[in-house]
Every structure is written in C-alpha cells, then in structure tokens.
Records
---
Amino acid sequence: TENRVTEYGKTMDLKTATDTDFIGGANRTLVDCRRVLKYTYAYAFTNDDDAHKDLLMVHIERLERFVEELSLESEGAITREGREKVVNLMNIVGKSKEAVEGFIAFGATFTARGGKMM
C-alpha cells in the first residue's frame, strides 16, 4: 500500500502527504472489504436458511458493486473531484461492509438462540 501511495504521488506530481493520504485509505478499505467478502461467501454457501441467504446475498452484491467502483475510481483519481469521489466511496463502502457484518452477526445470534429466520 505504501509503495502504491508513493508511486501515485510521483506519477501525479503531488507534493504533500495530504494529497496522497486518500489513496492509502482507499487501499486499506479495499483490502479489508475483500477479506470480509471472502469469508462472507463461505458463510452464505453453508447457510441453510434460504430467506436469510437471499437477503445476505443482496447485501453482499451491494458491497461487491461499491468495492469494484472504489477500486476503479481510486486508480484514476487525478483531479480534486476524483479524489473527493474516492473519499465518498470509501464512506459508502464502509457502511456497506458494516451492513454485511451486522446482517451476519444478527443471523448467527438469532440462529444460536434457536430462532428460525423467516
């Protein structure tokens, strides 16, 4: 990540760390979200409750879409507007990741208590 930030700063001729901080944050967000997605796929695959699985897949697909958009935007964020879009997408991706994690936590807690998702 740090190498990419340094390389990006040189390529875009950015002078301050503030100008390049967003790319490091975007990279950390992408790595974290892709890790969550990796384990979420396994959880969804082994989940026997079809209703819970279907809703979970909606959240997963939303997170995938935003992660992919963040990835594409962060590679080409040259202008101030591009950087602002990356920062906004980082917030959206973070909220989507929290939604997926929360949905899994709720499902796991609910099923552990003997409940059945309807």
Note: The longest helix spans residues 80-112.
---
Amino acid sequence: MSTIRGEYVFIIDRSGSMSGSRIEMAKNALLLFLRSLPVNSKFNVVGFGSSHELYSKSSVDYTFDNLQDAEIKISKMDANLGGTNILAPLKAVMAIEKKDKYPRNIFLLTDGSVGNTHQVLSHI
C-alpha cells in the first residue's frame, strides 16, 4: 500500500469581518482539518487581514508535538488583522519552497469578503 503524502497549507481570514462567531467557526474547521491530515504529511497555517502571519517559514512535519503547538496558536487567533488582503499571503505561500513528493494543497477559510478579488484571480 502506498503512503499518502502531501503538504497542506491553510490560509485563514483574520480580518475584522471575521469577528465573533465567524472566526470561531473558521478556527474549529481548521482544527478539524489539521487533526484529519494523513500521516507523513506536512502542514502550515497562514492568518491574514491587512497583514499576514505564517505559523512557520516552511511547512512542518505532521507530528503530535507540531499539532499540539499549532492547536495552541490557533486557540489564540482572533479577527484582529484589519482588512481583507489575500494576495500577499497567497504570494507568501507560493514562495515557500516545495518539498519533493509532497504535493501542495491550499485551503482558504474566509467569509468571502475579500477586497482584492480581481488581483488575486489575475495572480493565479
């Protein structure tokens, strides 16, 4: 049986429009996704608004310790990063060096109130 491997990057909207129940639902979904990753995977989390924050400069191995660390950081996330500029975090994710044999999968968790949709679509 072949081993399923992948790099999973989760981009979570932390802009002001995500305040209240929206950020809580996104965090819960993110935690569910992380806990469901295949063994031998790598992952990263990027929070964005007017600025963005990477969990790690490069994706990390999916281990118990890394998962616990990510869970702690996710629990402290809030909708406190201002506006909704998704282009910069997308560029940051694309700049992360790809690992051989780990196909990159990018997931976006947002309420859809993105301010620069045209620029994003032009970039990808």
Note: The chain is about 35% helix and 20% strand.
---
Amino acid sequence: TGTLTTISSRLGDHDIPFGNIYSFVDGTCTNSTGIPYFYGTYLDQSLIDSMVNPMVSLSLSEASLASVCGNKDRIEECSLGSRYGDPENPVCARLTLTGELVVLEEGSAEYQFAAQSLFQRHSTMANWPRDHN
C-alpha cells in the first residue's frame, strides 16, 4: 500500500496535490518487475485527476513490506510498538516514484499479468465490480 498523489482536477486553476491510499503490486510474489500496477475505477478521484494530468507520484514506506506476500519478517525499525520503531524512523526506507499513469489495454499480456498479480496479492480485488470502468 502506498500514497498515490495526483494534481487535483476539482480545484480549478490551482495546482493542489491530492493523495489517496492505493494498493498496488509490481508483479507476482515470485516475479517482481518494479513497475507499479493499480486496480481502480474512473469513479475514483485519483483516476479522474489522471485523465486531466497523467503525472502522478507513488510514495512508499518500508514499513508496509512485511505484509507483502506474507513471507517477510516485520522490520523492527519501522514497526510501531517496538522501542524505536515508526514508519518515519530515519532508518526505515522511504521511496517516491514519479511518472505518467498509463492505462493498460484490456486483454493484453501485460494487463493479464497485472490482473493475476493484483488478485494474488490482494485477493478481495477479484470480487470488486468490473462494470465501474
């Protein structure tokens, strides 16, 4: 899970950032690609914003890595409840990726790979409505 940030399209001529929590994957648990894939709808404000300005950023914390694929140990320096643990701890890595949000062509090999990967790591997404664009 990370924060997907867009430039809000709802505030007129003001370039105001809008951050939204988004689940994502970069491939299956055994085949990470480094390309973040999202599963969303154009009813969501972030994707509405991306139609106006496709440039987005995705901010991540190492704290969320322990929940990926279920086979990672908790990172003590990033974990609340440990003596010095917190996602803002300087030794807990953070990363922001910036680039253009691109819609994959439905039915393409990359689309199929992304869907398989998303549904593997975020199984409830397979039950989300498919008629929401």
Note: The chain is about 15% helix and 30% strand.
